[in-house]
């Protein structure tokens, strides 16, 4: 009797008549979902059979292989055992195919596969359909439209604007040094890079660095980055309808609104300035248009201007990418130099011979600091600001070693693992700037801090300039040393950050 009661027909008898139809429908939908799960998993197992990976649970994937916040460290152990690539199972029918071999990366980046749809959907409420998330002809059109914003004629005046922002940050650090405390770099550097991108790309002169409290946009970006990374790894948060009902989903919505409020203010101020037709014409006659000028004056191929939605998406995208990634790069470079005082001193001597007291730094100076540039590149190798890039295979692929994957697999280009791959870099954990000495050679896809191929970072020259200015002016002003009580551990995310921050002791250089 008890067995029959637990059977579907037995349960149906005890359910009131009006609800029996709903019960049967729910049961059928559940069975369909189970069948879809099983068939998808079997397809994935067959598709990935040429690529071994650590044993995984059929439902929980590799979840138990990763201790909390130890993702980067765990993957670095696995790349020694699994050359080129391995599938990382998130849960039953969800897998990211991790790639960290330069030959594999070269093949992928030489194609035009789109970004992952799922990851795209998680990011689009925040940064919209801008250059980072667009695919196909629309992406190409926007890319071609925005490329002039990074011409060297436009980038040259930005050097002084960047230097002004860095000097504000260094003045704040001098006050902190007199108080005898160490400095947590990332928040200070984030405010400086936000200040810089606002002035350079949007001609918006705010005072983000001078406010005593955390800038709401910086906090929003931090929250959104953490929430995105957490959501990708939570099987129950994949559906928008469910996610919106959770505390994390509500916080995500609030943070999106804060970020949009900031970018809307930037756009509104410029549009107000351009309300008079003659002002718009004056802007168009300018020799050097900034990023926002180009967006506002741009015409699509059909003659139409960018919609308000497209305009905000590009501003949101560039505002995030233009400040958070460079903040990560600068913070980790300064930490690497603090950990290696001999290299730090060699950089300082090079910069002193070039700039003197640093009262003036110009575009021409940036190409005359070879040793400092070597150290910057080596720090970007060990601490790449963007640890991962995603693609979904739009057609089958065969790698140079003959192994292949079918269409539809989500591929994660693991830049962090590539830069630490002992088959690519000898002694990869050792800080050795001579890897990038003039005349040294490496695989074309061994070093990818700004990605590669047709979708490489449009702002990489802007970013490198900002890194050089920040490092040069900081070393002229301070001697850097690590805080022994707070050695940072790199933490995985959209952008590489330090768990519990990146703390340094600063000593005024005389």
Automatic annotation (TrEMBL):
What the record says about family reads:
Belongs to the cytochrome P450 family.
Q: Does the keyword Membrane apply?
A: yes
Matching PANTHER family: CYTOCHROME P450 4A11-RELATED (PTHR24291:SF39), CYTOCHROME P450 FAMILY 4 (PTHR24291)
Q: Which domain of life is it from?
A: Eukaryota
Q: Name one Pfam family in it.
A: p450
Keyword Metal-binding appears in the UniProt entry: yes
User: Which key words are in the record?
Assistant: Endoplasmic reticulum, Heme, Iron, Membrane, Metal-binding, Monooxygenase, Oxidoreductase
Name the UniProt record assigns to this protein: Cytochrome P450 4A11-like
Its gene is LOC101652679
The subcellular localization recorded is:
Endoplasmic reticulum membrane
The family database entries (InterPro entries) matched by this protein are listed as:
Cyt_P450 (IPR001128), Cyt_P450_E_grp-I (IPR002401), Cyt_P450_sf (IPR036396), Cytochrome_P450_Monoox (IPR050196)
The record's annotation in SUPFAM superfamilies points to: Cytochrome P450
Primary location group: endoplasmic reticulum
